[in-house]
Each structure stands twice: as C-alpha cells, then as structure tokens.
Specification:
Pfam families: MFS_1. GO terms for molecular function: transmembrane transporter activity. With 409 residues, this protein is mainly alpha-helical. It contains 15 helices and no strands.
Amino acid sequence: MGGCAEAGDGTARRSRRTGRGRGVFTGAQLALLAGGFLVNLGTFAVYPYLAVLLRDRLDAGMAQVGMVLGAATLVQFASAPFTAAFAERAGLKRSLLLATSLYLLGAVTYLYGAGSPALTVLALFLSCGAGALYSPAFRGYLIHAAPPARRPRLVSAGNAAGHLGVAVGPVAGALFLHEPGRLFTANTVLYAVLAIGHLFLRPEPPGPAGDGPVVEPFRRVLRGLAVVPFAATVLTHYLYMQFYQYLSVYAEGRLATAGYGLIMMGYALGLVVLQPLLAGWIADIGHPTAMVIGFGCMAAGMTAFATGGPVGVAAGALAMSAGTAVLFLKNDLEALARSRRSATVTFGQQRLAVGVGALLSGVLGGRLYGVFERAGLLPGFWLAVAAQCVLLPPLLLAAVRGPCRPGRR
C-alpha cells in the first residue's frame, strides 16, 4: 500500500529518532494522565448500562432508547471540531475545567433525575458535551509545546490512560448496577474532585509570537484537514466498532458472561500495555506500513471470532488489541504531522472521523449482521468483516491519492 501517503515522513521520522526516550513526564502531564484515567473510569462505569437505565427511566422500547443514544453520540462526535476550535480560543486549562464541570453537572442531573425522563436525557447530553470538549483539550494540553520527538510517547500515554479507564470502568459500574443512585453519587464525588483538581493545572504557556498555525474562524473548523489519516481513522473505527458493538451479541450463548467480560477487559489492557511499548516503533514506520500491519492483525482477529469458541474469541481480541494499538496511534501521529492546524483542532477533526466510522459501523455493520443472522450463518459475518480489513485499506489509499500532492499537508 504505497503511494503519496508517505510523502514528507522521512524528516519527521528522523527527528523522532533523534529525540526518542528523552525527558520524563512533567507534573502537569502526570496529573492530566491521572485525570484522563478517572474521567473514563466515571464515564465507562455508566456507559455500558445506559441502555438499561434509559429504558427504565423513559419507560420506552429499545428502538426509542437507541434513537436517544444515537443522537447523543452523534452530537458528541460531530461537535468535536467545534469544541476543539473553542478550546483553541478559550485556552486548554479553561476548557478542561469547563468540561469537568459539565461532567459534574451531568452526574448531578442523573442523580436527581431518577423520576424525570427529561432530566435523564439532559444528563446524557451534558455528559456527551463534556466528552466532546474534554477529549481534544486533554490531548492538546498533553502535547502542548512538546517537540515532535516526544509526541509519540505523550499521545500513547494519553491513550493508555484513557483505555485503562475503559477497562476498569465497567467493572466498577457493575458493582452498582442495581443501585444507580449510589453509582451517580460516586460519580458526582469523582467529578467534583476532578473539577477541583483541574483548577490547579498550570495554564498552558503561549507559543512564541508569530509561531504556530493561524487560528481559523469557526466556520472553517475543517480547513487544513489531513485527508489521509482522517480517512484511515474513519475506516479503522468502521471496522473496529463492528467488533466492539456486535461481539457481545455474537458471544451470547457461546461464552459465559464473566468470561466475555474478562476477554474485553484483556483487550483494553492490551492497548494500555502495547501502545506505550510500541510508540517509538510505530512513530518510525510509514503510515502505509502501519496500515498493512494494523489491518492485517484486525483481519486475523475477525477470522478468529468466526470460530465462536472461548479460545478463538480470546485470540481474536488479542489480535485486535495489537492491530488497534498500531492504528489508533499512527493515525493520530500522521494527522499531527500533516495537519496545518493546531494540535487541539487536529484532535477534534480526528474525533469527528471516529464518529463517522462509528456511524457507518452502526448503519452498514448492523445491516450486514442482520443478513447473516437471518441466514443462520453468523460466523460468516466475521469472515466478511475480515475480508473488508484486507480489501478496503488499499482502496482507501487509492481513493485519497488524488488530493495528496507534493507540498500539501
């Protein structure tokens, strides 16, 4: 999968090699990494159980619940370029403080909205809005003023902190599954502590006068988009979300619930370990090479899922962990290298790509899953997704090769 996607990589890779491993995390970065873990801990203590919570509080069917969840998710991802542009103007520390305050307000609204469907929906949208602002501001602050040589380490550390929260959150939430009042009380305390903690973050220092990208008007939030990594991120999450969304349904009756939970926790912990360990190597390889490796691992994982047994599903999750560890990090690093915008806005654009991929997975993947389910050939669904992991990446590079020209980023 060669072509213009590697243009300009050589200089960036040489600069990364010269500085790899230098320096340590600052106190502010360590505090922020802890915050990223705790934010996802609180979020994913609730997220896996939202469908049940909304069904009970709204007294609605799953179709209506799905519409509410879909709308909230769309708002979170579609607004990311705008919230990132807001953070660029308002300041990263202020944006992080505002986001944690919105998380706190959402938790309080969940807590006191038990008897009110309107308050429950409001709490959901407050939490999604908080996530839309926190994610790009968190990543932007983490790598603010860091030289290119340190970016792989910092981005991978931020991802690892978030994935650790994703792994631990559902376990913590399960402890309060039948007592949502206690869950939201705990979340309220957690987000209050986080909001106070973010007050003590140092404001990010301004860059040198005249240095850095120009701040564009809000109407140009997609200006300077790094097309190749954006498209690769869409494809990555289109395929990844089919694993994340449909494996639980497929595993029902094939695996014990506890066993499936352990496998998914193992997947998330694999990302926590693998990405920081491989960060330097991932930074050095070209983007097409990363796509070959990453999507190849994903294809192997999807194929293993088709076996339907505990060993096959566990092996598939391990392969998916390796593949997504490479792709999640390399796509973001490539976007940072190619974008003409600030790191914060670039992360917001990448967040939009995640949302587009997830939407496509829900629309196209769900329909494909239904076709195989009705035919009684569900293992064939995973083989079809594995085939897409092999066939779609070279087609994507061929499709985006046109806009990629020498001298353009």
